[in-house]
Amino acid sequence: MDPVGVAAAPDAGPGPAWQSKCPWGASNTTSISCSLADVMSEQLAKELQLEEENAAFPEVVAVAEGPFITGENIDTSSDLMLAQMLQMEFDREYDAQLRREEKKINGDSKVSISFENFRKVHPYDSDSSEDEVDWQDTRHDPYRADKPTTTPRKGFIGKGKDITTKHDEVVCGRKNTARMENFAPEFQVGDGIGMDLKLSNQVFNALKQHAYSEERRSARLHEKKEHSTAEKAVDPKTRLLLYKMVNAGMLETITGCISTGKESVVFHAYGGKSATEDKVIPPECAIKVFKTTLNEFKNRDKYIKDDYRFKDRFSKLNPRKIIRMWAEKEMHNLTRMQNAGIPCPQVVILKKHVLVMSFIGQDQVPAPKLKDVTLSSEDMKKAYYQILNMMQQLYKECNLVHADLSEYNMLWHDGKVWLIDVSQSVEPTHPHGLEFLFRDCRNVSQFFQKGGVAEALNERELFNAVSGLNITADNEVDFQAEIEALEKMNEDHVQNHGKKLSMFSSDGDPPIYDE
Ligand code: ADP
Ligand code: MN
Fold this sequence. Notes:
By secondary structure, this protein is of the alpha+beta class. Among the domains are: about 165-225, no CATH class; about 235-365, Phosphorylase Kinase, domain 1, CATH 3.30.200.20; about 370-500, Transferase(Phosphotransferase), domain 1, CATH 1.10.510.10. About 45% of the residues lie in helices and about 10% in strands. The strands form 4 sheets. The protein has a 5-stranded antiparallel sheet, sandwiched between helices. Adenosine-5'-diphosphate (ADP) binds next to strand 3, strand 4 and strand 5. One of its GO terms (molecular function) is metal ion binding. One of its GO terms (cellular component) is cytoplasm. This is Serine/threonine-protein kinase RIO3. Keywords: Antiviral defense, ATP-binding, Cytoplasm, Immunity, Innate immunity, Kinase, Magnesium, Metal-binding, Nucleotide-binding, Phosphoprotein, Ribosome biogenesis, Serine/threonine-protein kinase, Transferase. It is found in: Cytoplasm.
């Protein structure tokens, strides 16, 4: 059963008295009416055919793109959350009961029956990492018959003139009628399923297509309604995660969205109370939600698939898990930076693709990015030296290269610069680590040179100052060629010696490139 279908009930129009009393009863009222003319229309059938061909996997589309819930309707959507939580509770009890019955029936018997298939495996139910197959879930696929057909593979039953093939009109008609059960719940098929109704293939196919298009149409409408501020959106699962955090008291309130990027949405929240005494939740938090729409992350593969910390896991994972890995990576990197004393958000908690950290800013106002703030020349100089220092610390103490360092990912707060956005940060021995570092240096150097800091090193000098390397090329092209040569050398070394750690002494000194 679809929990969202249940949750939609309060929105439905007025129904009979018994429906308004029963919270679950009203879902029928969202029925979609259709005329016979609609169903039989040639034109429609053709369109539907096209649509069907264009979207082979309706479920995937529905999960990936919506229905989104926006940051602006927090109050009404918590009804949805509430309904989902109730549904979850209900499902859990139902499953527990099933298990009890299963146990009772089976007793000590050697042969046992299983009710496994009747469980309401709830998509939100489990916190384990194994629960994320639902994005390719086909449970409601109207094209997939639930039970295997009873006609054997040879295609017929019986002998001689009593032969019954799978094309038999009666058998087929009954089967078609039964298959109507697989249509979306809101598509009313009447009680034909209870009668001995036989639908011809033609009628069944027309109905099937219509049911399917109605399902998609209703999904689209729903999506449109909720999509009005799509940029600020998170999907229902994420909302549930957030809701749980609020519910557990860890967060006081989620006030709104501070940023929507291609790969993440960031919210502000007031911190609540920690379950454990030793951990203090900051008064204000930033919640970074890594977007689960998968496409944007494809161009970021290069940051993670060559990072040996994640390499082994990368190849085996589905896209959703890879997104979680970004969140995890950001958490690890922030922790390293925190330990080195670099000003950066402090990690509060990581839940799947949602990372909660301390908020840089005050009273819901995030600290401005370096690109947006106008600093006095004195502060500008101060900021420059601080960043030079941080880059060295990052490299030498954290063994990291930011890899997206620029005035966009540095915040000015409390009279100093704070580094954020480190999900893509890599270790210097990453196959492209030094190239990333060079790019960072170029951004920083250009920003401060344009900003009038006369002392600012140029990008090549900065690179050497941060890495401790001594690349002498005096032009960019040669410099980059040398960087790539070093990276190549490192890779060859790894090929021959099998481990990257050999590039570092165990106490975290910088890599030694010339052996
Ligand atoms: P993206 O990958 O979308 O660039 P960021 O981590 O850079 O993600 O976050 C986007 C924006 O959200 C930042 O530019 C900043 O304005 C805001 N932001 C992110 N983290 C915090 C934080 N801890 N405190 C305050 N603002 C933050
Ligand atoms: Mn950013």
